[in-house]
Amino acid sequence: MIVRVSEIPDEGLRIEGPDSLGQPFADPAWTLSDVDLLVEREGDAVFVRGRLGARVPQVCGRCLEPFVTVVAPEVETRFLPAPSGRAEERELGSDELETDVYQNDQLDLGALVETETSLALPMKPLCREDCRGLCPVCGGNRNATACGCPERGTDARWARVLGERVAADGATSFWEWLVSSGAEAA
């Protein structure tokens, strides 16, 4: 949805409901479930505030099963007109990190919605917090069935490096040592 900045009323422009923006996402599998935005103009600056809701298909980072993530980002962004000509490089202040630009008196709210939704997605998507992932030996999904594979022993390539440490800690394998040392496997 393109909004002409010069046509934003003094009281602001309220955008409500997912149908008001059409399909703002490049991926048609992403769906917008909630929109409540207020677009206000103050001189050349445009402020967009509100909230979004979206359902985004993902693949679990541990077990590789597909699932749907629900995100609900809060939106608070300031837009300024794009500088004309070539601007000098300068360091942004902390108050400018939430600032974007618009060009030719047009503000693309669809791009804003897609960006805010993308930024709200988890960096490592998990189908559930206690996902057990895949068996490192046979590749089976440990959430679906119990795996009868033997535990992996120490990789021979690590034996020389970890030999003293594994033996000193009493662990019988690298993985046992890793768990007993308090490190968390990713």
Q: How many helices?
A: 3
* Uncertain stretches of 5 or more adjacent residues: none
Q: What is the approximate shape?
A: elongated
Q: What structural class results from the helix and strand content? A: alpha+beta
Q: Helix coverage percent of residues?
A: 10-25%
Radius of gyration: 25 Å
Could you tell me the mean pLDDT?
Answer: 83
The biggest beta sheet, please? 6 strands, mixed
Q: What's the end-to-end separation, in Å?
A: 40 Å
Q: Beta-strand level of the residues, as a percent range?
A: 25-35%
How would you characterize the overall build of this protein?
There is one protein chain. This protein has 186 residues and is an alpha+beta fold. It has a domain at 2-83 and 94-120. The chain is 18% helix and 30% strand. It contains three helices and eight strands; from the N terminus they run ββββββββααα. The strands form two sheets. Strands 2, 3, 4, 5, 6 and 7 form a six-stranded mixed β-sheet that branches. The chain has a two-stranded antiparallel sheet with strand order 1-8. The longest helix has 14 residues, at 156-169. The chain is elongated. The protein starts with a strand and ends in a 6-residue tail after the last helix.
